[in-house]
């Protein structure tokens, strides 16, 4: 067998430091008796786009006198020894391009996700399935090493490059020792300490794939003040829905008070005998609807101590640093009217001069500095309007809508169970604030208006699901319009 | 200041006789120019030769020592015209640009240069931006070489061959009085390798000599009757001289010429890929010892007919490996063989592909098919059917989404397009004519803005037909500061003034030629030791006669940006309208200020770092904010709420606190989830006092909140 080049492909996104990684590999090879060649395609691909760095190495002692190895400038599918992907979908891309084969390739991939733009901008959930990507990696590669290298690197205060470099060293796929790998980092001379720590973390990552974050399962525990309601759940509802209902009462007690949580169970009681999936989805969406996001709720959540602590953690506040928090709020006349007692709120919305007077103060957004006393007090006062929430315009409006929605589900639960389930799920459309909320409500209404036709149709539930998807396809309502037209 | 500094690397340019150079291809080209005794270098940046310009900038001291003049040309046309210095004088000069776009721009000057011919060696180093990673239309430089009859070098993609091509390119140019084009593909430009250096050479005849003792020859000027003479000269004298030089100096290479009765003819740039294919088939070793005859065209234009005939004469067939289309070389070889009455079969595009990059996979397939046809026994053992990959692999591959390049974190161009989205909500969509530059990312999600792009600086020119009194609706054109100075001032702004356009131009002035790597332009707002900066775009626009000009000096001020756009689109005032939208390229800004901030914090100064965040419990997962921004640091994450399913928006720590998120939340009345965190490093005593007092009261109220919630959660 004649000597062959060692081939390495690094799939990364522009700006992630893939170039540094390739440079390290070249240095590693050249300092340790190898020829090395690296190529890349910079240019605009560097601006956050997917890009590939390709490295070939060749042992000097295998080269006859006077000869030079001819190294390829781009990978040949099926002929790559080591593929490194800085993110899970990029590993998928390596597979898609045929670089990873079961005969030859060791695949090192970080299991974390950096979402593509199309995944981010979806109005609902546009994420691809990480499990499928992981399974594909496992099936495609001869040897698959995966860990959340981004997380490991972050813990070490370094970019992802050195963590991946450590994992590459640990695979044993390259003919160099750990010390030789580490020497290249030292010679590089930039951020050496943090890089070596990340390298070690990457090296030691055993390939235990941290699964993508899953919502916690099981029935959440409740505090003593909710014991009675928890008991009522266990007594009156089937076990399958206990987890959702318990999360529901926790949320609504936090949102308003214990009585409100009790009313939640009252509203669900008529459905207790319905199919468990209908009950569960209705319970989930009811809890969300009853805890609609009004200014009171927002102010309440933003003033909590736990929230201040969370922001501190998120920005990695260190001991000697101080934290200031500023909110970007833009209440309009509608939100103000929503918070007022129902009659007064309706009057404000319907009275031209009053509306324009208040409107004058709400034309521009406000920046409220919650970490200062005046800002905090403002939000604290707004949050305490919780005490008059039950009399507010918004409360009246939302609960009337909820009653109607529950009525629909109750009516359909026995005759059209599949349709009832989709009606429960369609609540998903009503979310957000301001125009977003208004748009969602409009879409929901348009879909519900189609119900009589759907009840008569053979696959009404499937159709309703399609309409909901269409409503989430774009924010101008074009897809929904088209979908309704084909009804 | 360019995005990447080569201050360390340029030291390699001082290597002397017989030393070993290790580094990037483009740096090796620079070294080769200095070894060749070049007198002047010019060019226009653009991938893949941006680094060449950056290297030259950083090497200005070394160039000055050697008496080499270096210019950042205003455009590729300027660069090509610069070679006029080699027409009358024995001066060696080189220019460089991205091809084919740069060659398009340069072609007027190039044609004039090629017509009259040169005395001193004139080299055009073109970065062939073709195939993966390319940002331009897929065409070939080859066509330009043919049309103007300049010679085209396409060396094997290793450093010794590339360096030799530069050196011999000058000689070929002088021997045939013809400019020579050196074509380097993207990967060759960025390939890391080694070669043995020679000493740098100071030119014998200098620019000073030429300026002080000017000469002219009316026969070198393109005007009848000389222009007719030039054409005759090209055919009768220059072409044969070139062919003779190529043959005598052995520029093209033959490997194992008689090994088989079939062989491969290839462009030099394809050599490593073809060799790898043969190696995988067991028909070559890793050191280039091939069992299949190879004729490597390091010069792809002109072809040396005698060499072609000699290589093909005793062969049943040849495979021509010629990347891109049209298949100029294949046609030429067919003609040559026909005229020589040789029956050698010529394969090429039939076994490879007509269009597109010759990747490793395509080469392997084509070479295998060729060998199989003429000596099937050689590849029999390699011809096993490929195992179909597991279902899981196909399923995973289907999950992969494209990830095109986009605006960087905190990019100041993003709020301009956010403002356009907001105006679109009020006034409906407008026809938008785009230009070349980072701003062209606006055509992709999330903005989806822009209908056409007609070339660098041609944003407004591309909208010039939309100039009619039959509608009040206006069109919008985009142009970057790079394109503006390249030609947009005349082709766009001057044209709009002269033709009484009533439309709108937005000039995006981020202080750099950002897309090509952050080089300075005339209007850059940074001191540059070797160039003149601080030349105002606004003044230039007014200077050519635009009356309605608005300058927005902070593009992150979204309300201002939106209002200015609205005004431009709705004002009753007639005539061209120009908005100059100014904010510094964030990529370069961060590179500039990060070390300063680190130092200030280290020195104990009070430094406030701002970044944005999102409260996960108030975000409902609609992602409107992302659709209006598209910032890389504004992403999504799984919803921590047990009752919700849709992922929530999230700001990651790479956020540079540009402020757009907050502006969007305000201007678009989105949602109250955004907050700005202000992290105070080294707080002063007054800071600490304020914080203590605030924390006491806030803490007391937070205790009350917690008392209300006590006993609910476990």
Index terms:
heterodimer, A: 487 residues, alpha/beta, Pyruvate-ferredoxin Oxidoreductase, domain 3, 4 domains, six-stranded mixed β-sheet, two-stranded antiparallel ribbon, elongated, B: 714 residues, Rossmann fold, seven-stranded mixed β-sheet, six-stranded parallel β-sheet, 25 helices, 24 strands, globular
Provide a descriptive summary of the structure in words.
The complex is a heterodimer of chains A (487) and B (714). With 487 residues, chain A is α/β, with parallel strands linked by helices. Chain A has helices at 18-31, 88-96, 117-120, 130-140, 149-156, 160-171, 178-188, 192-204, 227-236, 242-255, 258-268, 276-290, 295-302, 305-314, 333-339, 342-350, 352-360, 373-384, 393-415, 417-425, 434-449, 451-456, 460-471, 478-485; strands spanning 6-13, 34-40, 50-59, 82-85, 106-110, 143-147, 322-329, 366-369. Helix content of chain A is 54%, strand content 10%. A 6-stranded mixed sheet of chain A has the order 2-3-1-4-5-6, sandwiched between helices. A two-stranded antiparallel ribbon of chain A has the order 7-8. Chain B has 714 residues and is an alpha/beta fold. Chain B has 5 domains: 9-248, Rossmann fold, CATH 3.40.50.970; 253-382, Rossmann fold, CATH 3.40.50; 414-588, Thiamin diphosphate (ThDP)-binding fold, Pyr/PP domains (Rossmann fold), CATH 3.40.50.970; 606-681, Alpha-Beta Plaits (2-Layer Sandwich), CATH 3.30.70; 683-714. Chain B is built from 25 helices and 24 strands. Chain B has a 7-stranded mixed sheet with strand order 3-2-4-5-7-6-12, with helices on both faces. In chain B, strand 10, helix 12 and strand 11 (294-297) form a beta-alpha-beta unit. The chains are: A alpha/beta (487), B alpha/beta (714). The interface between A and B is large, with 146 and 127 residues.
